[in-house]
Structures are given as C-alpha cells and as structure tokens.
UniProtKB/TrEMBL annotation:
Protein name per Swiss-Prot or TrEMBL: Dynein heavy chain linker domain-containing protein
InterPro entries in UniProt: Dynein_2_N, Dynein_heavy_linker
Domain named Dynein heavy chain linker: residues: 2-49
Gene3D superfamilies on file: Dynein heavy chain, N-terminal domain 2
Length: 50
C-alpha cells in the first residue's frame, strides 16, 4: 500500500539531462514517470475510499 509507494519513490532514480545548452535540467524520460504516478494515484484513491 502506502509503504510500497513511498519506498518506490525513495529508490526510483530520476535521470536528469541538460535542456539544450542552458543550465536548466529536465527529466530525460517522463513516460514511465507519468505512468507510475497515474498508477499510484489509482492505488491511493482506492485506499481513500475503503
């Protein structure tokens, strides 16, 4: 449940890359991050309703 979600994000490496030639960084691949966030939101909503 909540412990698994917390552990996942504590241990999830997020790859950052420099945006063009600036000193601004962005996530390299957001597709997996967004999918995981959506999955965890569904799990949290289910926990909230029980």
């Amino acid at each position: 449940g909540l412990e698994n979600i917390s552990t996942y994000w504590e241990n999830q490496p997020l790859e950052m890359v420099c945006y063009k030639t600036s000193r601004i960084f962005r996530l390299q691949s957001v597709d997996q991050v967004i999918q995981t966030i959506e999955d965890h939101l569904v799990q949290l909503s289910a926990m909230k309703s029980t």
